[in-house]
Write a structure and sequence with these properties.
Blueprint (H helix, E strand, L loop, with lengths): L1 E3 L11 E3 L13 E5 L5 E5 L2 E4 L8 E2 L4 E5 L5 E8 L3 E6 L9 E8 L4 E10 L17 E7 L4 H14 L1 E2 L8 E2 L2
Length: 181
């Protein structure tokens, strides 16, 4: 989305905060990487225009702590789900053994009801994170992201129902370094 002037194209807010530069374009002198203080949307300001920098197509939702992600294998691993959408999932994994571009099938379980969605095909998209030198891999959670690949109609419906009945829309809280106009 694009908006004329220095305001958020998503919510119309005028309070903005600086954020770190991620791309080569954001490191140039005529571009300002910002975050909306009201809705948390990532923005890029090009002088008279403000553009949404968010590339996600789906809203993110937070599931209750009773939902776990199961990673298959000889010794199955379980991970806490940070957020989920129709297009992918973000989770904390205590093991750093999931390289980017790895495809696998995961399960999402609701521990309260004993129900779940099984065999969801995903591709890991987050690069492996480097753990601090003094931390052990068993104690340091690593946030990973995965996108869903070719879900069946039944899996899409189960996922949508799970998100609709249990999810709360994620709201990104901005950092308090406000630039106001």
């Amino acid at each position: 989305m694009v908006c004329l002037g220095k305001r958020c194209p998503c919510c119309g807010g005028k309070k903005m905060m600086n954020r770190g530069q991620n791309s080569w374009m954001e490191r140039t002198s005529f571009v300002s990487p910002l975050v909306c203080a009201e809705c948390g949307e990532r923005l890029i300001s090009y002088g008279l225009c403000t553009i949404s920098a968010e590339q996600r197509r789906h809203n993110r939702f937070i599931l209750p702590a009773s939902f776990l992600l199961r990673i298959p294998g000889d010794n199955p691993q379980f991970a806490r789900i940070k957020n989920i959408s129709q297009g992918g999932i973000s989770f904390d994994n205590l093991s750093c053994c999931l390289p980017a571009s790895k495809t696998l099938r995961i399960d999402i379980f609701n521990c309260n009801t004993g129900t779940g969605i099984e065999q969801l095909p995903v591709e890991i998209i987050a690069p492996p994170e480097k753990a601090p030198a003094n931390a052990t891999s068993a104690s340091t959670p690593s946030t990973k992201g995965a996108r869903f690949l070719k879900l069946t109609q039944a899996q899409k419906k189960l996922l949508a129902d799970c998100i609709q009945t249990n999810g709360k829309q994620e709201r990104i809280l901005p950092v308090p370094n406000i630039i106001s106009q």
